[in-house]
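The authors assume throughout that readers already know how a fold can be written as discrete tokens. The format is easy to grasp once an entry is in front of the reader. For illustration, here is how one protein appears when written out as sequence plus structure tokens:
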Amino acid sequence: MLLSHDDRDPVRPSAMLETFPIVKNTYRDYFKVTGENKAAELLRYGKSKPGCISLAQGEGTLPTPEFICRAVNKALEDGKTFYSFGAGHPDLRQEISTYYARIYGVSVPTNRITVTSSGTNAVHLALMSILEDGDEVVAVTPIWKNLIGITELAGGSIKEFSMEEKDGAWTLNLEDLFAVCSAKTKAIMIVTPNNPTGWTMTGADIEKLTEFARLRGIWVIADEVYGRCTHKCARAASFLDYAREDDRLFVINSFSKTWAMTGWRLGWLVMPADAEGKIRDLILYENMGAPTFTQCGAIEALRHGEDFLEFQKKLWAENLDLLLQRLPRLKGVSMSVPPAAFYAFFHVDGCEDSYAMTREMIDEVGLSLCPGAAFGKGLKSYLRLCFAVSPEILTAALDRFEEFLSRR
């Protein structure tokens, strides 16, 4: 008999303190390309320390809702354990199309939708389908290191273009972004709403970038995983609001954040219709498609997940208020207020190496945060804290952070 959601142990603060053995990485060929992921190493190190509170990863303490788990239990009981369709079950692809019509007011036919094994997998498929050795991808930073690593593994080279933080907000200068694009630029990669800053691109700027890319024949890879994780509106502006069906555009999305499904590894990719065949071929060689039974849960998330999303957004808003009360009191700490996502990305005066500071914090006070340097050049003085957790865990973490700063 499969466990139902109600049969599981409730999530307690101790769930954040799970320990794992430390495993020393061996340097395989791919490290020669991407370099070792030091942020991931620090995440593992923090989890290896008993009693350490880890807010370094992009997930919270809420488990996947019961109604989603129940759908998967039923799928397993019904024997839905065989191969699925490479591009995703037709019912789920149709549900994603319906979701876009209902929430975004845009028409996205199913032949432009592919179900993927995580949002990260969607990025990888998009890049593999267009990149040749030596192609350049301009990545707007701060950006999650894995997206840079995936680009390099796919044979492309990364050119970072940094946003600026000024006057209490992160900003993107489009004219300067356009100026750094060269004849070698195959794609522009942008995350909006942004991880880690919460910055969200305006509709007007999305339209300008879309028109520029269309004119130059440049692909746009838009990671919109946090598109529903907004604090003052129902959803963020999307590239799909302004794109034509034949634009060179990939839009990445995921079930992970919106419906607390990080461990499910399930996402989707919106693409031009003529990319469907190539993406499907890549999936056949990569993993044969997403698991069949998990897609049944994804359908339920799309159909009935709005109440849970609102519950999460209320928690995030309360935690953000707590952060805005606590962080400004700390000497040398400054943060722009994020309009979306569930991260505090803050600057610490005097921090010259966020990797070193993160490790020291784990050792000295049992708190694991994510080093800002993992998100691009020029961010060595920043730290990222995930606040999609219970208020009790967040309060304890802020107490430890304050203690750590008091020792410096």
